[in-house]
Write a structure and sequence with these properties.
This protein is an alpha/beta fold and about 575 residues long. The protein starts with a helix and ends with a strand. An eight-stranded parallel barrel has the order 4-5-6-8-10-11-12-13. A hairpin with a 5-residue loop joins strand 2 (about 30) and strand 3 (about 40). The chain is built from 14 helices and 27 strands. Helix content is about 25%, strand content about 20%.
Length: about 575
């Protein structure tokens, strides 16, 4: 009788916990629960294979009970240690779905995949673990077995494999339409074979096919991965995924997005933020982001994938700046990709020390304390306050300020806005990046002026493709200090005419042997005088007001009639 009563109480407890886990849906750039509250998730990851469960020392030989016992214990241990987790990313590891005894070259090799084994262990391992996590108050992100091969193509064997896996998962009665379960559609695609078509358009079509198959059966939140090991997302702005309940799964490691790694600790918040804004922010303005892999620690601990230090938010280092940037973006959920057994052994009461779990320069200590803050009412009130959201300041065209000019688009450079000094790295490039594309087509000319002659092979280059390794239009300074570029006659080395309606990258290339000194750069209708955005306006009681693209939108005595935003008045940037 006591045992039956205990089972009854346990059942009731699990049901109450599940009832408290409000189903999520996507609303614009946010996850919202059933009550309409913004939800930003913070969590950890689990992989269900012996090797990734403490190197095969805890269970093996396809021991389902051993796997479940160990991994449920990890969830219990993490919560007992005091971690305020709200989601877990669970890997349906190919250990279970590959035919035993068949050699594979890695997790991207699917020739040993057995569909019947996958469906069997989905029922016996993956679904029970998802149910257990939900019963513990954790939302679940499920990822398919393995990783993408280096090159993918629409309709190839790997595409067919993903379609087959997700069509089955989408029909599972315990997963379909479950507002506590999200699907991350693939892991770390790198390149896509696109033929003559834009690779971004091809990637959208590749993922859209998977989305469409899933949508025949369920409406779970789907997390779309980007190319470049889940770093490249501006293509989804240009070619959107169609449908509802769509978010994006991003990876972030030290050295990515211009961030600092352990051997490059002097990279600061500003460089990291520029890289993030270039590759992630455009899609974050439209849909929620989940960083499904991220960690850091000094290499000496050999306990993290990413090698870096915490550093200081706003200064140097990776970890503190990642947290700041994620919070500033306002809709980024993220996890700590550290082994679960290490997280379960964390003790916040232990003094700072020289171990992975006690060193403030490794990820566990700062993340544990940040998660504590995310669990507070104060934080929940902030993200649900009226007007909460990412207010991205629109980048002005060709601003010669340290805020907007990036001297390190390729190789590390330095720039001084007071003097116009630019010294690029060797064969380096500094200038401006416009993730959404800048429309220069309404002007005839771009004028670029140096204040003195150069001796470092300098040229000015413009790209109408969002890829630094594409072929730009190049204009050499030689012995000149002034270039007048006809925006409608720009050709690259192949003779292709560039489209000025979407310029993604513009700036100065040099061999890095010496500096150049930039005097001015402006758009012009006649090649000799600046257009409105660069003009010095005369004092008047009613001055013209221009937007950041140089278009006249009103007068200074009637600015209260304009929408809130940044404007140019009398050559100065003003916020209304």
């Amino acid at each position: 009788m006591k045992r039956l009563l205990s089972l009854f109480v346990t059942c009731i407890t699990i049901q109450l916990t599940f009832a408290q886990l409000s189903p999520l849906h996507v609303d614009g750039p946010y996850f919202r629960d059933a009550e309409g509250r913004v939800v930003i998730l913070h969590g950890f990851a689990q992989t269900f294979s012996p090797w990734f469960n403490e190197r095969g020392t805890k269970w093996n030989n396809y021991d389902v009970e051993g796997c479940l016992r160990y991994n449920k214990g990890i969830i219990d241990g993490i919560q007992k240690a005091g971690w305020k987790m709200t989601f877990v990313r669970q890997h349906m590891d190919p250990y279970w779905s590959n035919t035993p005894g068949i050699h594979t070259t890695g997790e991207n090799d699917i020739h040993a995949f057995d569909y019947n084994r996958f469906t069997k262990y989905l029922d016996e391992v993956f679904v029970p673990m998802a149910e257990y996590a939900i019963s513990k108050g954790l939302y679940v992100v499920m990822r398919p077995p393995g990783v993408c091969p280096e090159n993918i193509s629409i309709g190839d064997a790997y595409h067919q494999y993903l379609l087959k896996v997700w069509e089955h998962v989408a029909q599972h009665p315990k997963l379909k339409d479950n507002g506590a379960v999200m699907f991350e559609l693939a892991n770390e695609p790198i390149h896509i074979n696109s033929g003559s078509r834009d690779k971004d358009e091809e990637m959208t079509a590749y993922m859209q096919a998977i989305v469409d198959v899933i949508r025949q059966h369920c409406n779970n939140i789907l997390l779309i991965p980007g190319l470049g090991w889940q770093q490249q997302y501006t293509g989804f702005v240009k070619y959107p995924i169609k449908g509802n309940n769509i978010g994006y799964a991003v990876h972030c490691y030290p050295g990515w997005y211009n961030s600092g790694a352990e051997n490059d600790v002097d990279v600061t918040y500003r460089e990291f933020k520029r890289g993030w804004d270039s590759m992630i922010t455009p899609i974050a303005l439209q849909a929620p982001i989940v960083v499904t892999e991220m960690d850091w620690a000094p290499q000496k601990y050999q306990s993290s994938w990413g090698k870096a230090v915490t550093g200081k938010a706003g200064g140097e280092g990776f970890g503190a700046n990642f947290i700041r940037i994620a919070d500033e973006t306002c809709n980024v959920s993220w996890l700590l990709f550290t082994d679960g057994n290490l997280l379960a052994n964390y003790q916040d009461s232990a003094p700072d020390g020289n171990t992975f779990l006690t060193d403030p320069e490794a990820c566990p200590r700062p993340c544990f304390r940040q998660y504590q803050y995310y669990a507070t009412e104060e934080y929940r009130d902030i993200i649900n306050a009226e007007g909460y959201g990412y207010q991205k300041e629109e980048e002005p065209l060709f601003s010669l300020t340290e805020q907007w000019f990036n001297p390190s688009i390729w190789e590390k450079g330095t720039f001084n806005e007071a003097t116009g000094y630019l010294k690029t790295g060797q064969w380096g490039f500094g200038g401006w990046q416009y993730p959404m594309g800048a429309d220069l087509s309404q002007w005839k000319y771009l004028v670029v002026e140096l204040s003195r002659s150069q001796s470092c092979g300098a040229s000015f280059r413009l790209f109408d493709v969002n890829n630094y390794w594409d072929k730009p239009a190049m204009f050499n300074f030689n012995n000149k200090t002034r270039l007048v570029i006809d925006l409608h006659q720009m050709k690259n080395e192949t003779g292709r005419l560039l489209d000025p309606s979407h310029i993604y990258i513009a700036g100065f290339w040099t061999n890095g042997s010496s500096a150049i000194y930039i005097k001015d750069i402006y758009l012009s209708d006649d090649g000799s005088t600046p257009s409105a955005i660069a003009k010095t306006m005369t004092e008047d009681s009613s001055l013209p007001v221009y937007d950041l693209q140089g278009r006249k939108v009103g007068t200074s005595d009637a600015m209260d009639l304009l929408p809130r935003g940044l404007y140019i008045v009398n050559g100065k940037k003003l916020l209304r």
